[in-house]
């Protein structure tokens, strides 16, 4: 799994912060949370969403950059409580976290580019929910052999 936080400017001049967790193998977005602050609540809600979307016996490696929120006790303890393995990029090596950075680029270019900024966090949340559904269940890529991320995951698990 890869995780990171990005920010999006809203029309009301506020920033919205997005925490996402993506499965590197299937490209599936397993957690996607939005907040007006990049705080503990945002990060914990993303982990909790991930937990509900994983099988009970899953113990993934969760990779992030060295952002402050990924180094604090609440985050490392939450991962340890669920037997998740924490992995962090080396300092100054953003390529280590390319899968989630790539997703954020697609999200911003496919959903937000060319449009007026979302008027508020409610509008961004609604559009984002629809986009994540589209991304996981409709959008196909060559990386996933022409399948959607969900189809690819199911295909891989059936093999």
Automatic annotation (TrEMBL):
Taxonomy, superkingdom: Bacteria
Which Gene3D superfamilies has this protein been placed in? Ribonuclease H-like superfamily/Ribonuclease H
State what protein this is by name.
Answer: DDE-type integrase/transposase/recombinase
From which organism does this entry originate? Limosilactobacillus avistercoris
List where this protein forms a coiled coil: none
Q: Which InterPro entries match?
A: Integrase_cat-core, RNaseH-like_sf, RNaseH_sf, Transposase_IS3/IS150/IS904
Q: Which residues form the signal peptide?
A: none
Give the Integrase catalytic domain ranges. Answer: 1-157
